[in-house]
Amino acid sequence: MKHEPVIDPLVPVRTVHFAATALAAGTVSFLVVVAEPAFAAAGDANGWKAFQRAARWLAWSGLALAAASGAAWLIWLASDIYGASLVYVCVHGGALSVLTETRFGQVAIARLALALLIGIVLPWPSTRWLQLLAAAAFVGLLAPIGHAGASASDAGNMHLGSDILHLLGAAAWLGALPALALLLHLVRGKAPAVAAAAARRFSPLGIASVGILLVTGIVNSWYLLSGPSNLISTDYGRLVLLKIGMFAAMVGIAAVNRYRLTPRLAAPSAVRALERNSLAEVCLGLCVFLFVGALGTMEPPVHNHIPTEQIPPDAAYVHIHSSEAMADVIIEPGRTGPAQAKVLLLREDFSVFTAQGLKFVLTPQATSKVASITRTPERQPDGSWKIDRLNIAEPGVWTVTLTITTTGGSAIVLDAPVVIERTK
Amino acid sequence: MTSRINLIVTGFVGTLSILPAAAFAHAHLDHSAPKAGTAVSPAPKEVVIWFTEALEPKFSTVEVRDAKGTEVQSGKAVLDPANHAELRVPLKSLPPGTYKVIWRVLSVDTHRTQGDFTFTVGR
Predict the structure, then answer these.
(1) Residues of chain A numbered 96-125 and touching chain B (CB < 8 Å)
(2) Does B100 fall in a domain?
(3) Which residue on chain A is closest to B5 by alpha carbon?
(4) Residue of B nearest to A353 (CA)
(5) Are residues A194 and A97 in the same domain?
(6) Secondary element (H or E) of residue A216
(7) Does B32 fall in a domain?
(8) Is residue B18 part of a domain?
(9) Other residues' Cβ atoms within 10 Å of the Cβ of residue A223
(10) Which residue segment(s) compose the domain that B93 sits in?
(11) ipTM of the complex model
């Protein structure tokens, strides 16, 4: 018996890769934009040298981790494409073929070259603008190998541009937080002027990044979600919602840092609190990267939301997708009380899926005392299935479960949440 | 300190547990010529499939088979240079009958999908 893995192995690999990329680029940006001017303003040349040494190791660690996780990503991908083991694709050239003959591989080569360049020139502060440019390209090139880069339409260029800015904003803020915490740790009790100058310089960078992340996050969602209801009714949307929640928590901590702690940085306790808050933000940032790692492996709702008929404005609609069959479920009206439902069963190429039979079950939330609704839909001449006389007793998130009996006699089960509103 | 570490570990594991277990496919068939499920006459010289995402040509294939399962395409599927979501496969001369088009593609965001549809060549 074949067991599904508990978690797609690509999710942790992508998470590490995104976090390591942001760490490397964010540390480079922090060194150039925040730390160097902060130490210079405080006239602390020795402190600057000590911090530079420590921060370089932080950036090098990020680059090394990004290279290792990037290689793991490539090998896993080759194994998935060829349907062969990880060792087989390494030994027999499958990984090399993916590296040289796909956009993913060509981008990986370019990014590896950029990582080597950054790693080599990092000890020379005179190359700071080259470092910044290379770091930006190292981060931004992640966009063409993601959802934004796959669009076949001209509108995809707007999505791609927005995604590049989103990645740069994330790297400049989240990726720089470990370097900020490191600086605060090194200067605590010794150089309060450096801590204050660094916090003052980091603050506008953080605010600009949050603004960019907000705007580009909305633009990206416009392309990837079919509507706000997707945030609740789809796995992809719920993960986006969790990501927004983590982001909001980080902005909350950043606001405390900016308005409460930064004005008091003359006191070592405030520096310690700022360092602690920065580390808390790093933890939340890791969760954000975990969600980013997962979202890239999932199907955005806009890809599967292709309604095959006009959906009435007051209807509850859900699209259910599996490798075996897809279904459009329309409950009209999508409110409590009497309603009717229509189900369209589709194959992956959007042709009608011919089933021998269908069972429709609507289940309320586990805490509800209301009973489930079970119906056997009637097949219509157009191939759709109709369910009359539904009486939905309460509002909330219900689960619609479809059990399809195929013409071969086997069963396919599809389920998804659907939101029922209260009748006004 | 230990309880704080426990809290972080629990939170991280809890977060992991809500993540999806499997990846989904991305590039779907948008439309095709001949259209899925239709009858055409005269016989087409090629099958063209438009997908919803740009594809990797090296890892995207299309087979067209007759009712006996014999392949009837006369060459490899190629991407349209102006539209990387458009895949064309040339056909041999097709006698009347039902043909099955089987496509397996890799989108540039590295997701694999596959599907099939049929069309009929009339007399």
Answers:
(1) 97, 101-104
(2) yes
(3) A283
(4) B117
(5) yes
(6) helix A192-224
(7) yes
(8) no
(9) 18
(10) 25-121
(11) 0.75
Contact A399, A416 (CB under 8 A): yes
Q: Is A360 helix (H, G, I), strand (E, B) or coil?
A: strand
Is A135 in contact with A24 (CB distance < 8 Å)?
yes
C-alpha span between A95 and A87 (Å, rounded):
10
Task: Report if pTM > 0.80.
Answer: no
DSSP state of A259: I
Per-residue pLDDT of chain B (123 residues; tens, 9 = 90+): 445 445 444 444 444 434 433 333 357 777 788 877 778 889 999 999 988 888 999 999 999 999 899 999 999 999 999 888 999 999 999 999 999 898 889 999 888 887 777 888 987
Question: Is A2 inside a domain boundary?
Answer: no
Q: Distance of CA A49 to CAs A35, A53, A54, A175, Å? A: 11, 6, 9, 21
Report the half-sphere exposure of A181 (CA within 13 A, side-chain side): 20
Structural domain count of chain A: 2
Shared domain check, A177 and A249: yes
Residue at which a domain ends, from A253, A285, A303: A303
Residues of chain B with C-beta less than 8 angstroms from the C-beta of A4: 21-22
Tokens of A104: 């993913």
> Rounded to the nearest 10 degrees, how much is the dihedral formed by the CA atoms of A134, A138, A143, A149?
80
CB atoms within 10 A of CB A180: 29
**B85, B50 contact by CB (below 8 A):** yes
Tell whether B116 is within 8 A of chain A (Cβ). yes
Q: The domain containing residue A209 runs over which residues? A: 10-303
Chain B interface includes A276 (CB < 8 A): no
Kindly state whether residue A44 falls inside one of the protein's structural domains: yes
